[in-house]
Amino acid sequence: MTSTTRVVLDPTSEQAPARRERVARPASLAGKTVGLLDISKPRGDVFLDRLGELLSARGLRVERYRKPTFAKVAPVDLRHEIAATCDVVIEALAD
Hints:
The chain is α/β, with parallel strands linked by helices.
């Protein structure tokens, strides 16, 4: 068996990737506001519509958000609104 070296190219041209600690998941969603973020990829809204229905049926408060385009990060004001309003966020993409 031969050994092969693979080179992975990073299109962001980062010299070193940013390291972030993961935020601990809540023990329960009871009493939490769940944000559903649609990143504007085709059919992502279909998945989030159904997920929103399921979460609402469990008595959870659901807030919906949508990025203007999937090609860029969410605008600062949108990120601030989500952070100020929601306890947890689910981001969905689809094609």
